[in-house]
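ok trying again, last paste got cut off:
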Amino acid sequence: MGILRTESEGSGVTVSEQAEDVTAAEAYDEVEQLNDLNRAVGRQVRLLRERAGLAQRDVGDRLGYGPDLVSALERGVRTPQREFLEAADELLDAGGLLKALVEDIERAKAKARVRHPAWFKDYARLERSAVEINDYSCHDIPGLFQTKHRIQALYEMRRPLLDEETIEQRVAARLARQEILTCWPPTMISTVIEESVLRRPLGGPEVHQEQLEQLIRLASLRSVELQVMPMNRTEHAGMGGAFILLTPKGKRQVGYTEAQDSAQLTTDAEEVRILAARYGSIRAQALTMQESVALIESMVGER
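nice, full thing came through this time. structure:
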């Protein structure tokens, strides 16, 4: 499958608020098993389609799906729905082969729904053991770099409103994640932040100034590489939105994205490769680390 979806906590990865009997390694292995199942189903669909002499667009047109979706299903990066498998079985004269996979797919989906919260609740442990984190932020300061007062302000401005106890728990959880900034051996962290984000005084002038000063301090760490994407760039590789590339210890790199109230974790090798290439282009287009710090320093004291 390569993709997991769950409820997002916003600005940074969701952190566990309840104990779960699932380790990050186990969750990762389970994702890989789901990947294998979806890739196997995708290969079956492709072989049957080719045997029938149909193009992906032909299948999509006859079943009411776009060619991009058919392509994604064949590559195993999307989970086929019951309706698609049953209709494709008839169209491709599969003799019940695809219909027989429906039960396996639905069991895997049900299991995934159980594990999604466990994966993200345990993500903090995975993050703490990561050897490298690359973060492109276009809406806010990365959660690992936020000050306590900024985190507090962000949760207080959430809509719908959060109760005080929830805010307190989430502030503490996000601050706990920041321990990786001072542990040894350090996690290598690089980030590119939009200049517009740095000029938006969320939480008020005092909170904003404190946040800028925090970024300057963090940029001096040997394990942190901080860059700013200036607003005057005429080309920008990151217009698709924010994302994180995380390399767990002993595991392959994964991609993470958030939008509104949903989050997506990608383990598919090709999808992650595309994100990594995109991140390289974003870094090349951004200011250098020295130029970035100089720009942030110039903002300190501005009102």
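cool. The first strand starts at residue 3 and ends at 7. The radius of gyration is 22 Å.
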